[in-house]
Every structure is written in C-alpha cells, then in structure tokens.
Amino acid sequence: MDAINTQTWLIVVGVAVLVLIALAAWFFYQKKQSQKLQQRFGPEYKRAIDQLGSRTKAESELKEREKRVERLHIVPLAPPEAARFSQAWKAVQSRFVDNPKNAVVEADKLVRELMQKRGYPVGDFERRAADISVDHPNVVENYRVAQAIAMRAERGGADTEELRKAVVHYRALFAELLEVQEAKHEVMSDTHEVRT
User: Fold this and answer.
1) Which of 39, 57, 99, 192 has the least CB density, counted as fewest CB within 10 Å?
2) In contact, 169 and 108? CB cutoff 8 Å
3) Would you call 187 helix, strand, or coil by DSSP?
4) pLDDT (tens digit, 9 = 90+) per residue, 134-169?
C-alpha cells in the first residue's frame, strides 16, 4: 500500500512539474511575442491597446496586420520614380505659400500615389494607416495627424499654422515611404569597368 501511495505521489508530482514547466514556457513565449510586437510597432503598440481595450486584442490585431502586409507585394522605387516623386513633393511645398489648403490636399494625394506605387492598397484611411504601421510604425501617427487636419481643413476648420503642420506630417511619412532600389553594380574583371 505504501508503494502505491509513493508511486501515485511521484506521478502526481511529476505531472504537476510538467504542467508548471509548460505554463512557464507558455508565459515566456507570450512575453517574447509581446516584446517583439512592441519593438516592431513602437508607439502603435500602445495606441492599439488603448483603442481595443486589451493587450490580447491589440496583439491579435497587430499580428493580423503583419500577416496582411506580408501578402502584399511592397517594392522600393526605381531611382527615376523616386526622383519624380521628390520633384512632385518640392512642387507641393512651393505651392503652400500661395494656397496652403490646396497644398495639403495635394500632399495627401501624393502620399497616396506613392503608397500605391510601392504596393500598398489605398482603400479607406484606417486600413492604409494600419498597413503602413507594419513597416513604418514611427511615422504612422504623423499620417493620422495630417489626415485629421486635412479633414478639418475641408470643413474650413484649420488655420494656416495647422495646415503647415499637416504638410510637415505628410513630409515625414513621404520621406520614409520614398525608399529607393539600390542600383545593381557589375564589375567587369578584365577592365575594372563598373556598369549600373
């Protein structure tokens, strides 16, 4: 009888230890996942928690964003395209003095065009912001602020200083999205000639 009780206790203790190890491993994994998401999304991580009301819901949403953006074909711009977009941005900025409200509208359109050229879908604003947050979490808030000012400007509720801030916010996003493909260099061994 004592042998059965000892064996039973050993089994119970062994199972309990395995359960504790499994729980510790699960908590460690969850913590690592949370840290990974916090590092990747930066301030967007906290915003998602505040918006959705819980860490679990926010992390689920952020993981869904990652999966959705992984399925997209996001590409860097070819140098000529990047140059064209840079020139277009300079033109928008130069028109700000004469027509600030129109410059904000043009900045928004140019950002959308750049997103589309890179491969981001340009559906509704919240979806665009969520998609951008995956690869550009530190400037997505700029996009939200610029968009809010642009909406107020449409209703006549934004002054020139706010419009200037909107253009500055759009510029931060624009600059980060203006990723250029590296030119391919081939070195010819005999002549040491470089071709691009």
Assistant:
1) 192
2) no
3) strand
4) 999 889 999 999 999 999 998 988 999 999 999 999
